Amino acid sequence: MAVATPKIKLYTNHACPWAHRAHIALAELQVPFEEEIIDLSVPRTAEYLKINPRGQVPSINFNGEILAESAIIANFLADAFPSHLLPAAGSPEAALLRARTAFFVDTFISKINGNLYKAQSAPTDAEADEWIAKYVDGIVKEIEPQLANAAPFFNGSSKLTQAEVLTGSFIIRLFALLKHGVLPESVANDLSTKAPNFYKWGQAVANHPSVSGIFPEDRVVAFTKNAIAKARGN
Ligand SMILES: N[C@@H](CCC(=O)N[C@@H](CS)C(=O)NCC(=O)O)C(=O)O
């Protein structure tokens, strides 16, 4: 029996890196979906709070079933539509790659990425530099070795994988901030010399259409500049 095309509605905001994860997964899986943009600058409507009581994006309605939390949504999509993103569970080999992918994502998201956001909200340039140094150090020590066999994507893959689905929104932001001079040029120099695997991988990720597709670069850069100026009391 042919599997009916699921009805999917994504509640999102294109400026949100967490919601961006669901867009990357859906683009890569080429699954049709409808989207509703949630305005995060105003209180959430009672209607949206019924869908996601946390009031956050993303949320997804999949054939009438609601899911929230970006990693849960992206992993659900990868499992619901077996593809090049992630091997289906069921063998030790698949389990190992799934574990390595999860470890890569956990390293980047829970140990490293936050330092860049702390740099943006630091009250002084000196403090920001310390957070940026921690970010670069984490990439060099922990991410660089995990990308030794990237080709150009995680674990020798020529196509995006779940590792990129779950980190790509942050990687494209890093490269946009470097490109627009929001982060010092020394960061690009440090990353490209001390973490060449990461730098090459990051450029491939940021340039991939499934990652760059909905990314509102100018809006994110302007928002970030504004947030930094505010944090420094300017
Ligand atoms: N842990 C959540 C974080 C989502 C999140 O922080 N979304 C932000 C926008 S980037 C949001 O909806 N903020 C509105 C709010 O918290 O009221 C996930 O991974 O989905």
Textual characterization of the structure:
There is one protein chain. The protein is α+β, with helices and mostly antiparallel strands and 234 residues long. The protein folds into two domains: 8-80, Glutaredoxin (3-Layer(aba) Sandwich), CATH 3.40.30; 92-231, Glutathione S-transferase Yfyf (Class Pi), Chain A, domain 2. Helices cover 59% and strands 7% of the residues. The chain contains ten helices and four strands; from the N terminus they run E-H-E-H-E-E-H-H-H-H-H-H-H-H. It has helices at residues 17-29, 46-51, 70-80, 92-120, 125-143, 162-179, 185-194, 196-207, 209-212, 217-231, and strands at residues 8-12, 34-37, 59-62, 65-68. A four-stranded mixed beta sheet has the order 2-1-3-4, with helices on one face. Helix 1 packs across helix 6, helix 6 (162-179) packs across helix 8 and helix 7 packs across helix 8. The mean pLDDT is 97. The structure holds glutathione. Glutathione (GSH) binds next to helix 3.
